[in-house]
Amino acid sequence: MHHPHHLLIPFLICIAFALPARAQIGEYEANQYGQNLGDGTVVDANGQVRSTWGRDTSKVDRYVPTEYHQWKIDPLFGARMPEQYNDTLPHLFQNYNLTEGLRSEYNVLGNLGSPRMARNFLDRPVPDKMLFLQQYDYFHTEPYTILFTNTKSPLTNLQYHKCGTSETGQDRFRAYFAVNVNKRAGFGFKIDYLYGRGYYINQASSLFGGNLFGYYLGDRYDMHAFLGIEHMKTTENGGIEDDAYITDPESFGRSIRSRDIPTVLSNVWNRNDVQTYYLTHRYNIGKYIDLDVPDSLKPKLPEEIELWQMLRDDSLVNAIQADTLRRPIVLDSLKTAWMSQQVIPQQFVPVTSVFHTFKLQKLNRANYSQGGIPDDYFAHEPFYRSSYDINFQDETTALSLKNIVGIQLREGFNKWAKAGISLFAAHDFRRYALPSAETNDTLDVFDIYKENHISVGGEISKTQGRLLHYKARAEFWAIGPEAGDLHLQGQADLNFKLGRDTVHLAANASFRNITPAFFFRHYHSQTHWWDNSLSQETRTRVEGKLSIDRTATSLRFGMENISNYTHFASILTPNMDEFGEEVASYSHDVEVRQQSGSVQVLSATARQDLHFKFLHFDNEFTWQHSTNSEVLPLPMFSLYSNLYAVFHIAKVLRCELGVDLRYFSSYYAPDYAPFLNQYAIQDASQPRIKVGNYPVINVYANFALKRVRGYIQYVNLNSSRHAFWAPHYPVDPDGIRFGISWNFYD
Predict the structure, then answer these.
(1) CA 723/CA 392 separation, integer angstroms
(2) Pick from 428, 681, 395, 673: which is nearest to 523 by CA?
């Protein structure tokens, strides 16, 4: 697999932006040098006296402020939502880079950077217009997931994760940088480069992403902007040829390395190139109000003699003071003039906002081969071109240009209306290019689909205060192929004290009556082809969560009912041996299906963190039930347990030694369709394969020293025999991983 060296250009641009950043923060570096007292001590910028004996006193300590705060934005309105920069937390850092998730919540193909699917159905996104990006959500960055930062000093975070050898190694480098231009404006970038060679052959992955972001926060006008360029390339091996290499290796009579196990496919790739341009801005209408300050901070009227000095003419002052009628009048005027010169602290209170959000996103998807497909792999002839065993490349393009305009009556705009109210209208132009049936080995012809979608909606919300918050939003599609679609969503949380505990109650509910995503309705390629007329899908969800701070307890309950559930399904056609007695192999195909009637999913998740002195035991347990496991298979039980000890060395080095376990019960997990880059349910008409019912255990050591975090981890302590993340895709063999993260404020 070739490295995407051409994508290093955005990285160099980001570095060019970063180099002059130090010259843009002068106001934050005032008083950064201490005062040398000349007696062996220095007073630093915080007023603390420090000894200088034994070192060069001609150099003084430089004070670098490290305060910052961060937020994310609402994708529609651009409203700010406070966030915590969790990348600075040492706990669970050893799992931060795992594609299978922080607590192993996802099915993957084994290798770092592979497509994934959440095992908990309530965590799966609703398929959307950019369907091929959703299985890369651990890497793909949307504008509403970026952390905007206001910082007093330039903030830089560098991360590096590594495992394996030069033959099997998996590497990931991340960089995050943020700096302020002034108190109201800032910008930054995020770089993410992932390269996984893979412990099994023909499964390498190469992903590169570069993002630039910036903001301006004024009283009247505020703005957030985002630019993202991403390249995601994965090699598809179709799974291993025989699961017995993992489940019964002794049957082969010799020790077999993971990279010696043959795979179904070779020289087959999926590639997704994404460009995202985003701007949300608003103009605020409001008023300035005087701040109520303590009497000790209010301006005090000067003495009379100081007021007379304002005239700066002693003869005039003497003449006025001698005139008993003019004297009090002029003195009152001087008092008024003095008061008018005092600056009273004020705060801008927005009452109404007019906002506009623009988003342009373009996806170029390609699936191509250089001749590594078995002759009987597909159950059909090519839909175009001459054969599968020559070089071919299927390309698909999706573009979305969306504009949203609206007006928002800000929360508290009226004493009789405490909630905020927003109204908006959106236009979404979409263009898709799919290979045409006229395409052949030497000619590329595309079928073009153009769609215009217009929707209107509104929201009512209360986000201020501590006790109760709520938000309700409705959106209706009036014009376009999705006309008649309706999305209703509501959420609320209640926070209150119960004895010495703080209790949080949260509830979410949604109703969606939606047209299935474009790629469910239309898809053209040499390997898969459909043009479907599908009914609207109806999804109703109710979810609640209870959490208690003091006991570190969390309970989550959810139910979803789906009518006309739309999904991918694998189709297997048996190929008999030369005697016609046994199945020698299977030919493959994938189709889109809609399940008539309804499917219900019930889910409950309990999380309980226990600790006694330095010993901690964290557990998360999920139970699920699907009323139709044929079309929506789910594991009944999933478990993540983490037993670890936390202690400090020399009071400054935080250490965490532990062992964690991930487990899910066996079930007919969705298969992976390599030419579609999607997960699809197994063919129930043929023998199916269960995965799960096998624990995977890792041991690890975390450390944190000031601004540096690191870990070393031994994965799959109990080996990977019988362990599969998805049918025919085994867990990586045991091995050592390590990583480091370093924060800089300069």
Answers:
(1) 34
(2) 395
What percent of the chain has pLDDT above 70?
Answer: 89
Spatial CA neighbour of 593 closest among 670, 487, 675? 670
- One domain, residues 557 and 617: yes
Question: What's the confidence (pLDDT) of residue 253?
Answer: 78
H/E element, 197: none
89: which residues sit within 8 A by CB, 6+ positions away?
Answer: none
Confidence of residue 417 (pLDDT cuts 50, 70, 90): low
Domain membership flag for residue 292: no
Asked, for residue 465, whether it belongs to a domain, the answer is: yes
Q: Cβ(208)–Cβ(4) under 8 Å?
A: yes
Which one is predicted more confidently, 444 or 267? 267
Least confident of 132-141, 166-175, 287-296, 589-598: 287-296
State the CB neighbour count (10 A cutoff) for residue 158: 15
User: Do the bridges between strand 420-435 and strand 49-51 make them parallel or antiparallel, or are there none, so unpaired?
Assistant: unpaired
Predicted confidence (pLDDT) at residue 724 exceeds the cutoff of 70: yes
Length of the chain: 746
Residue 292 pLDDT class (50, 70, 90 cuts): confident
b/e 185-210 (16+ beta carbons within 10 angstroms → b): ebbbbbbbbbbbbbbbbbbbbbbbbb
Alpha carbon distance 84, 71 (integer Å):
8
Give the three-class secondary structure for 28: helix
- Contact between 172 and 2 (Cβ < 8 Å): no
Identify which has the larger pLDDT, 475 or 35: 475
On whether both 332 and 353 belong to a single domain, the answer is no
Place of tokens 């096998």: 694
Separation between Cα atoms, residue 567 and residue 61, nearest integer Å: 62
pLDDT of residue 297: 66
Q: Quick one: 267 and 395 in the same domain?
A: yes
Torsion-angle region of 693 (φ positive above 0: left; ψ -120 to 50: alpha; else: beta): left
Please answer whether residues 144 and 80 qualify as being in contact, where contact means their C-beta atoms are separated by less than 8 angstroms.
Answer: no
How would residue 720 be classed by pLDDT, with cut points 50, 70 and 90?
low
Residue 679: its pLDDT value, please? 97
**Domain interval for residue 259:** 69-285+349-406+461-745
Cα 35 from Cα 327, distance rounded (Å) = 50
pLDDT, mean of residues 710-733: 89
- Give residues with Cβ within 8 angstroms of 92, minimum separation 6: 102, 642
pLDDT of residue 323: 76
Contact 457, 475 (CB under 8 A): yes
pLDDT, average across residues 592-606: 96
Percentages (nearest 5) of helix, strand, coil residues in the chain: 10, 50, 35
In this prediction, residues 732-739 reach a mean pLDDT of 94
Same domain assignment for residues 655 and 676: yes
Residue 365, in any domain of the structure? yes
Q: Which helix (H) or strand (E) holds 329?
A: helix 326-340
Q: Interhelix angle for 314-322 vs 326-340, to 10°? A: 130
Query: Which residues, in sequence order, are CB contacts of 577 under 8 Å at separation 6+?
Result: 583, 584
What is the number of structural domains in the chain? 2
